[in-house]
Amino acid sequence: MEEKGPKYVMTPLSFGQSCHDINWISKTNATEKIKPYICLICKQVTNNFLELDCDEHEDEKEVFVVGESCLKRHLKENDHLCPIQQHKECSSKTSKTVQRQIDNLQVICPLQYERTQRMQVEKMEIIKACEFEGKIKDVRDHLDKCPLKSNCYFEQVGCAHVCIEQDLIGHLISSHQFHCDLIKQFIQRHQVIITGFLKHHFFFFANQASNNNNGIGGKKRITIGNRQFKADKG
User: In Å, how far from its chain's centre is CA 101?
Assistant: First the structure.
C-alpha cells in the first residue's frame, strides 16, 4: 500500500480580502484579546471589520462580527439572507476604532509562520529565516522585502497571492481557474485600450492626409515620414 506523505493544511494568509488566520494571530496574542474580532462566518480574525446591525436582532446583547469579504460571499451564496436570522436586507456598519485595534495586533512574519508550520508537519529542523515581528498593518510593506517571499507567476495580470516558495506550485494548481479568469480580464482590458489606440491613430492619419490635399492641378501631397509624394486623385 502506498504511503501517503504528511498533509499540510491551513487557512491561507491574505491581506487583501479574506480574514486573517486565527492560528497565526494567536502566536503572539492571547485568546481573550482576539475573541471580540472573530468572524462569525469563517471563525478567523476579521479583515475589514463589520458589525451586523439589522433591525431584526437589534435587541440582542451579542455583537455580531464579520469580515467584509465573508459577508459578501455569504450573501451572494445564500440569496442575500442575513447569516444570523436568515432574513433579507442584511445591514452592517464599520468601526474605525475596532479596525484600528485589529490593525495594531502584533504578529510574526506570515511567511515564516507558514514555513515553520510546514517544517513541524514534516518533522524538519525549524530554521528561522525572517525575524519580522510587528503590527498587522505593517505586514504588507514587510512582504515587499521579505527574504521568504515568492510572488505568484500571474502577478502581472492581477494575482496578489504571496507564499513561501514550497507552496507556490500548490497555489498555481488550486487557483488554475482563477488565473484563467484573470488572463481573460487582462486581455479584454487591453483589447479596449488597443482598439481605442488604433481608432485614434486612424483618424489622426486620415486627418493628416486630408490636410495634405493641397496639390496643384488635381494632385495631392501625401506625407510619409519626412518625405512628401504627389499622387493623382483616385
Answer: 22
- Using CA atoms, how far residue 24 sits from 49, 58, 119, 153, in Å, is 18, 33, 15, 25
7 band by pLDDT with thresholds 50, 70 and 90? very low
User: Of 123, 130, 103, 142, which is closest to residue 25 (Cα–Cα)?
Assistant: 103
Q: What are phi and psi of 3, to 5 degrees?
A: -85, 130
Residue range(s) of every CATH 3.30.40.10 domain in the chain: 22-166
Q: Are 83 and 74 in contact (CB under 8 A)?
A: yes
Angle at 130 between CA 30 and CA 142, to 5 degrees: 80
- The topology (CATH level 3) of 22-166 is Herpes Virus-1 (3.30.40)
Helix H segments across 14-109?
A: 22-26, 31-34, 68-77, 96-103
pLDDT tens string 175-221: 888 888 888 888 888 887 777 777 666 666 666 666 655 544 445 55
Rg of the chain in Å (alpha carbons): 28
Helix (H, G, I), strand (E, B) or coil at 156: helix
